[in-house]
Amino acid sequence: WGGGRYSVALDASRVSTNSISSFNPQLGSNLTASYVQPLLRNFKIDGLRQQLLVARKTEEIADLQLRQQTVLTERAVRSAYYDLVGALGQLDVARQSLDLSRESLRQNERRVEVGTMARIDIIEAQAEVARVEESVILAEASIRTFEDNLRTLVLNPAQADFWSVRLVPSERPVLAAQAVEVDAAVRSALENRTDLAEARRRLETTDINLSYVKNQKLPAVDLVANYNTVGLAGTQFQFGSGFPPPIQSQSQRSFGDALRDVFGNEFKTWSVQLQVNYPIGTSPAGAALAAGRLQREQQLTTIRELETQITASVRDAGRQVSTNLQRVDATRKAREFAEIRLDAEQKRVTAGLATTFQLFQAQRDLANAKLQENRAIIDYNRALVNLRAVQTAPLGGR
């Protein structure tokens, strides 16, 4: 209690001697108990309690770092998953564009056969097909790249089919709009962010060290209590007068008799004292206290700056969710208008009112509009992932 410490010791001995002695051999037993109670220095905190408290804070920091790594790994997996989903969506758009360009090529060939279109238009259509085929090839390569990125995060490299197993997402880019409360997200981040919690634990560690250093500047005033009881046994001799003294009688006392003396408090002594120790001059604790106070001020400043940074990052993450949701709506409308325009251009080409170049341009515009819509949906889902993660851990990276 209050930094008190105690000790209890039970000793036993057997001594034989050639000298004249009342007991030979002599069997001794000694029970000693002592208690030291600090009254100032080491009362509230001492070196052992300081180390224990600091060790607990260190363990908490390690747990926070593990939690942070878990959150960031989950975010990386989700981001890699959406990269793969987006690449598959890009491949779908490229294949749709390839189907349109091939159909345009077939129609141009029929028109050339009937004499309603020049042969140069076939070459232009063939060039367009080749261009779109390249986009399909690039999209397929992107899928392999993003698939490898995801596999390194979710699969065990030691398994035999690590590089051969196919990863097929269970969903395509979808829009699942969610309400976002930025203020609530900020409050959640200030309560749950691992980096902020770690900074606070380090501040608490500094407070523990400061408390210890302050306590060490106090005088050492200790209340010390000692208690001792002894027992004696062995072969006891009774001597007469003369030199050397003759042995008149002898008796035996066993070691058990000595123990009975000890625990029966037959021969006891005790003492209580007050010890005071006060160093004269400058102590090392004074310099350590000044350094600790400066460190604490620096840590407080770091925490305040971190709180501001966290608030800004959460607000930005929430803004990205809102912005990307608006992008999804805008790109959806652009895609719908591009579809209407392509349909109109196809009818104009059939009627001979538009050129193949205008038709291909409309097809490209539709493909770009679909890609933009796909990218906006992916970015929206990734923004939701980031908003969820930023409330627990610093994002960094992508």
What would you say about this model in short?
By secondary structure, this protein is an alpha+beta fold. It has helices at residues 47-114, 120-154, 182-192, 194-216, 255-263, 284-350, 356-390, and strands at 5-15, 23-38, 220-239, 247-253, 267-277.
Structure in words:
The chain has two domains: 1-38 and 220-277, no CATH class; 39-219 and 278-390, Outer membrane efflux proteins (OEP) (Up-down Bundle). The model has no long low-confidence stretch (mean pLDDT 89). 62% of the residues lie in helices and 16% in strands. The chain has helices at 47-114, 120-154, 182-192, 194-216, 255-263, 284-350, 356-390; strands at 5-15, 23-38, 220-239, 247-253, 267-277. It is of the alpha+beta class and 398 residues long. A hairpin with a 7-residue loop joins β1 and β2 (23-38). It starts with a strand and ends in an 8-residue tail after the last helix.
